[in-house]
Specification:
Length: 302
């Protein structure tokens, strides 16, 4: 028996259970009562159980029939959700999209993608905020955010991996000549380290252990800033060492103005994710932007 016959039998079963009689189900489906009865009988043979209690005046589900109907309803709902998801992919993004971006990375790498999308989709509107704090997407009405670093577990958010960027500890050539080159992360205690953070909360520096795991080192800096570009400026001005993304200091590293240290302790990188509130069907405007970001960073990851 082919798969069409199997699904047809299940459809007849669901219609009959809903109608409460072979006759009414037959009328609704444009079949004969005999055809409905035979279809149910064949389904019962395949399943090896009776689905209905039958009498001349009454038709009701058996316990097995009730359980099977619940399963069929769940499967039907999943199929409908799949169909709706496919339909949503045919819909162009429209309306206002509220986006939250890390300041420097967002301006340099995400905004060009968003500008391109607004050129392609004239009805897509953007409201973009730049900050370096962890916003609550649901409470603050944010549709999409880009987050750099390890994600905290959250049952009400969806995340998609975009890539990762490599971090490097570096200092100016003149600073290192005056203060020496650290041989291990423990040597940082005797150096001027420029921290990233706000108030009492600072971002740890990450280093690789010999077993491949990451080790967090919380620096106590005489300077602390909430923006990585300001930290980079301070490093360039010989104020100390900073752990920075390589895309921000590649030119200075190449020229020798800045020098990387502790390279043997460097990690593979810090993950970058697109994050949005969990809903049954992702809005087309969110889906289109996330898909485009994935394609962009797969080709040009900083």
């Amino acid at each position: 028996m082919d798969i069409d016959d199997r699904f047809r039998g299940i459809s007849v079963f669901m219609q009959t259970a809903n109608a409460g009689s072979f006759t009414l189900a037959a009328e609704r489906m444009g079949l004969t009562t005999s055809a409905v009865g035979k279809s149910i009988a064949r389904l019962e043979v395949r399943l090896g159980t009776r689905l209905f209690h039958r009498s001349t005046r009454h038709l009701s589900l058996t316990d097995d029939g009730k359980g099977f109907l619940d399963s069929c309803l769940r499967a039907s709902a999943e199929l409908e959700a799949g169909r709706a998801a496919l339909d949503s992919r045919k819909i162009a993004p429209v309306g206002r999209l509220r986006v939250d971006l890390p300041t420097v990375f967002g301006r340099q790498f995400v905004m060009p993608v968003l500008f391109d999308l607004t050129n392609r989709f004239s009805e897509l509107e953007l409201e973009v905020r730049f900050n370096n704090r962890m916003v609550n997407l649901i409470d603050e009405g944010v549709d999409l955010a880009i987050r750099i670093g390890e994600l905290e577990d959250s049952s009400n958010l969806v995340a998609r991996w975009l890539g990762q960027h490599k971090l490097v500890v570096c200092g100016s050539a003149d600073y290192l000549r005056m203060h020496g080159i650290p041989a291990s992360p423990d040597d940082l205690a005797s150096h001027r380290c420029i921290a990233h953070g706000r108030g009492d909360i600072t971002t740890p520096w990450f280093f690789a252990r010999s077993d491949g795991s990451k080790d967090k080192y919380r620096v106590r800096g005489h300077l602390q800033f909430g923006n990585v570009d300001v930290i980079a400026d301070a490093v360039r001005m010989e104020r100390g060492l900073g752990q920075l993304p390589t895309w921000l200091v590649n030119d200075e590293l190449a020229s020798g103005t800045l020098v990387s240290v502790l390279d043997e302790y460097s990690t593979e990188g810090v993950p970058i994710h697109a994050v949005w509130p969990k809903v049954r069907h992702t809005m087309p405007k969110v889906r289109v932007v996330v898909d485009e970001l994935v394609r962009h960073f797969a080709a040009t990851m900083p």
